[in-house]
Structure formats: C-alpha cells, structure tokens
Amino acid sequence: MTALHSLRTENLVSGYGRTTIVDGIDLDIPSGSISVIVGANACGKSTLLKTIARLLPAQSGAVLIDGKGIGQIPTKELARTLGLLPQQPVAPEGIVVADLVGRGRHPHQKLFRAWTAEDDRAVTDALSVTGVLDLADRAVDELSGGQRQRVWIAMALAQETDILLLDEPTTFLDVSHQIEVLDLLADLNASRGTTIVMVLHDINLAARYADHLFALKGGRLVASGPPADVVTSELVRQVFDLDSLVIADPVSGTPLVLPRGRHRVLPPATTPEPLENTGEPDER
Ligand SMILES: Nc1ncnc2c1ncn2[C@@H]1O[C@H](COP(=O)(O)OP(=O)(O)OP(=O)(O)O)[C@@H](O)[C@H]1O
Ligand SMILES: [Mg+2]
C-alpha cells in the first residue's frame, strides 16, 4: 500500500475570467476512501475537479495536499501524487492505445532517463485490468466510445497516483462496463488505498459506491456524508429539483432513488415504503 496523502480545499473559489463558478467550497476528502461528487448539470463539478488538479487557478481560497498549497508543489511531484481523468479528454491525433496509456508514466520518468521495465509493467497492468490489452496497437480515434473511455481510465491508472480524480468515468459505458469500472476503482481503493474522488451522474451508483458523498448546488456544497445519511428525497429535490421516492437498494442496501416523472407512475397506494433515514447529513 502506498503512503496516503491528505487532500482538502479551504473556502475555494474558482471560475472562468471574472465569473465565479465554485463559490467557497470546503471539502475534506477522506484519505483512502471513495468520495463521489453529485449535482445537477452546470453546478460546477468539473470546475471543482479541474481546480483541485491545478488545471484551473483558484480565484481565492486554497487546495491543500498534506497541508501544502498545490501552487507550491513542483509539477512532476504533483502529477505523481494526484491524477485527473477529465470529462472530455482529447487524444493526440493518430496515437495508439499503448502510447496514450504510456503517457501516464511521464511523471515517473526522470530527465534524460528512458522508459524502464517498471513503466512497461505499469502500462501492461493498466491495460489488462481495464480489459483493453487486446486494443494496445489500435488507434485511439478508431475505438468505440466505451473502449476509448476504458483506455483513458487505463492511462489514469498507469500514472499510479495516491489520489485519483475522475470526472464521470462511466460516460459512454454500457451497464455492465459501468459496474466493471466502478468495481475496478473499488478494488484499487481496497488493494492500494488509493483515494478516489469522482463525479458520477447516476445518483444510485454514486450511493452504492461512495464511502462519502458531496452534493453541490450552484457552486456550493449543500450536503456531505455517507450516502445513507445524505441521500433523501429532500436532497434530491433540493439538488436536482426532482420529485422522487428513496428506498433501500435490494442489492446493496444503499439508498435507491426512484424518480417520479409526470408519466408512467403508479397510484400512491401501490408504491413501496420510503426508506427510513439512518441519520442526519453532516453539513460542512
Ligand atoms: N472553459 C469555460 N469557460 C467559460 N465557462 C465555462 C467553461 N467551462 C465551464 N464553464 C461554465 O461553468 C459552469 C459550470 O460548468 P462545469 O463544467 O463545472 O459544470 P458540471 O457541474 O461539471 O456540469 P455537467 O454535469 O454538465 O458536466 C457552466 O455554466 C459552464 O457553462
Ligand atoms: Mg462536468
């Protein structure tokens, strides 16, 4: 198991030009756990992850790794500690899978030092756990959306960082590959103690896989805590402006959100009992 780094933000404000999107967020990411950020489209989730990964400067406040502002950490050292899979990564034209995944090893290569057997091992491991080893020689731009997404995840894994940020890693994946990727990240967390912070759109998968949930609305943190405490129909209304029933997921026991749309809804008497909440979300 690798050493665990701590990650938190302090009154973090960031955005684009003069526009503020992330509006004063204190995140205390539990080390060695899986944290999931949820929230409606455009509430600032990607902006938050990009600021944490130093791809976007903070307008004020701080991102702290082991108590040190990320601005003070040398680039390669930061890249060996924290990796980000962005929401819409762009591959260099014509690059083949193995070379793209190999780019994840750059932070580990010293100046003038060539590729090592250790780099080979990391790339092969990453390709095989994500199930894309047989695509190693294919051009990335010829792959299906789901294959490509697994290749990007492989690149993030090859970086072998203690902290892994993933912005919607299950996009483009069919249901079985979604579960496969989330199980893979849970394995990585269990075996290496990797701190995982990801944005997921599927609130039910978020509730199932998160140790800790952060809910954002309008660039602010509105709830934080274990899914069983945080995911309630009130929260779903507050965050997504959606009427829903929250029951216990019969597979995992975690909260399961059943949206009530305007159509195809049974009369109230025939719907299951709502889930009893086990506690109060801790507001941070
Ligand atoms: N590069 C940019 N320049 C200017 N505005 C941007 C830029 N990227 C995002 N925004 C704006 O910032 C706001 C938050 O965007 P962000 O991508 O953080 O949302 P999100 O919560 O990740 O949404 P989604 O769920 O759709 O991915 C949006 O209003 C968006 O239009
Ligand atoms: Mg986003």
Automatic annotation (TrEMBL):
Keywords: ATP-binding, Cell membrane, Ion transport, Iron, Iron transport, Membrane, Nucleotide-binding, Transport. Pfam families: ABC_tran. It comes from the Bacteria. This is ABC transporter ATP-binding protein. One of its GO terms (molecular function) is ATP binding. PANTHER family: IRON(3+)-HYDROXAMATE IMPORT ATP-BINDING PROTEIN FHUC. Residues 7-243 form the ABC transporter domain. Residues 262-284 are annotated as: Disordered. It is found in: Cell membrane. It is a peripheral membrane protein. Transmembrane segments: none annotated. CDD domains: ABC_Iron-Siderophores_B12_Hemin.
